[in-house]
Amino acid sequence: MALLKKKAESVASIMKTIRGEYPVIEGFGVTVEAILTKNTKVAPVIHSFKRRLKSEKSIEEKIKKKRLEGALVSSENIFSAMTDIYAVRLIHLYPQDIDVIHGAIIDHAAKRDWILVEKPKAYTWDPDSVNFLKSLGLKCEVKPSFYTSVHYLVKPKKNSSAVCEIQVRSLLEEVWGEVDHKVKYKGLNTDERVVEHLAVLARLIGAGSRVLSAIQKR
């Protein structure tokens, strides 16, 4: 007799598990924000700060998308399958400011304020940026979309369900990210002309970043 295939857990059941952990996740995210914004080395180079707690609708859509892609998402693994329920974003002005911020995040991990879930990852398409980011010990990955940002995943302790994604990017990179977000929201990300315009904008952002680097070095 053939074994019956186990029925996938309902999305509603997974969401119930997430709701139960929302206070813990948000509480840790707020703690991460407080630690970074009060850091005397980080504060001077931060232009602005953003936070985001993923809405239930967004989480449900992501669970369904992951399942369509073949992922086995359940209450048991949801907090490792979805690590961006809470995210904080540090926006800096000059490209080299990432050096200070990266050092602070690693220092706080060494002090056990949090632990790194995985090796920090830098998304960039610019060869010059790749060389600089690799010199900091960051793993670099190229996104076809020209998305640029440095991501860290931290949690308070090994077995905690609370994971906070720390995103670090320059003000110019934030401009590109906001435009890209609006494009996707309007469903224009498959329009070839729009995609080409985004690529041109990314290159202009890259040129602007080089100018800012030159100014910072004066």
TrEMBL record:
Protein name per its UniProtKB record: RelA/SpoT domain-containing protein
Pfam family, one: RelA_SpoT
Matches recorded under PANTHER family: GTP PYROPHOSPHATASE-RELATED, RELA_SPOT DOMAIN-CONTAINING PROTEIN
Domain named RelA/SpoT: residues: 51-191
Source species: Xanthomonas dyei
Superkingdom field: Bacteria
Any single GO BP term: guanosine tetraphosphate metabolic process
